[in-house]
Amino acid sequence: MKYIPLIVVTILWGLSFIATKFVVGEISPLIAALFRFSIALFVLYLFSQKRKISLFNIHKILAGFWGITIYFAAENFALRLTSPTNAAMIVSTAPIWYVLFTQLVHKKKTRAVQYVASLMALFGVALVILNGKLYLKVNTLGDLIAFIAAFSWVFYTHHVVKLKDHSSITAIFEITFWGVITLIPFSLLEYFVFKPQMNFNFNAIFGLIYLGVFCSALGYFLWNKSIKILGDRTTTNAVYIIPVVTAISELLIFKRLPTLLLISGIILVVIGLYVFEKFEERGEIHG
Question: Which are the contacts of 143, defined by CB distance < 8 A and separation ≥ 6?
Fold first, then answer.
């Protein structure tokens, strides 16, 4: 039961890549992100009236900045320069960076076998994403920007765990508020520099509603709830599962048969996460 919020959010975020593909085909990426999180902000506001809103907290400001603005700005600008495969693989390194970050900054004990398990899961993700396409075209600037997206998720989680009420709807509203505020300059930059064309058709509007309501409002709430229930490192490791959900969803939607590489990748992700979690639980018991 305790894994249900995390399972739901990984499914929502796995499907979000398909929804985003439709949206950014009609609306420029950062402006789409601004609309997405503005919808989320409105939904969260409707459900956050029971508690007093307290916006001016440095960790809420920085969580919104890193987890929404910088993450989406970096990911979207990286996709203008590098391939989706490169970007997806680099962003999927976030969990192992967070494990290293918590060992160095939070002084959390990490066993060598946990690093091996995390690398195993990451290798599984690589197999899922590549799925037989072993040629990667390197774009140095684009790939470096993609690493910024991975690191931004590390900093987002760092600031979230500093908040006592990070799993409440009100806190998610406050974090999202700062994400929207700090996202506005990037959106304006994209609008005036690239002068994108906007096409708010049915697919774009439906996709934005799905992304705003389910992937942002509900998704960030379930993610932060999972951090409270399962811990920050276990929850962050779920980033490995998101590309797997996307790959399986594409197979079902487009009625394709799974390849041996895809199946092998999924097995490695599951084994890696299982081993990491078992040793994480042992550390908590003995700690």
Answer: 78, 82, 86, 87, 90
Tokens of 252: 């079902």
**Taking a C-beta distance cutoff of 8 angstroms, is the pair 238, 10 a contact?**
yes
Q: State whether residue 108 is helix, strand or coil.
A: coil
Helical axes 241-254 vs 260-286, angle rounded to 10°: 150
Do 89 and 126 meet the contact criterion of CB atoms below 8 Å apart?
yes
Contact 93, 204 (CB under 8 A): no
pTM over 0.85: yes
Give me the helix-helix angle, 84-91 and 112-130, nearest 10°. 160
Rounded distance between C-alpha atoms, residue 82 and residue 267, angstroms: 28
What digits encode the pLDDT tens for the residues 56-104? 999 999 999 999 999 988 888 887 777 676 777 788 889 999 999 999 9
- Cα–Cα distance for residue pair 78/181, rounded to 1 Å: 22
Helix axis angle for 71-81 and 29-46, nearest 10°, is 160
With a CB cutoff of 8 Å and minimum separation 6, the contacts of 184 are 34
Q: How does pLDDT run across 224-245, given as a tens digit for each residue? A: 999 999 999 999 999 988 888 8
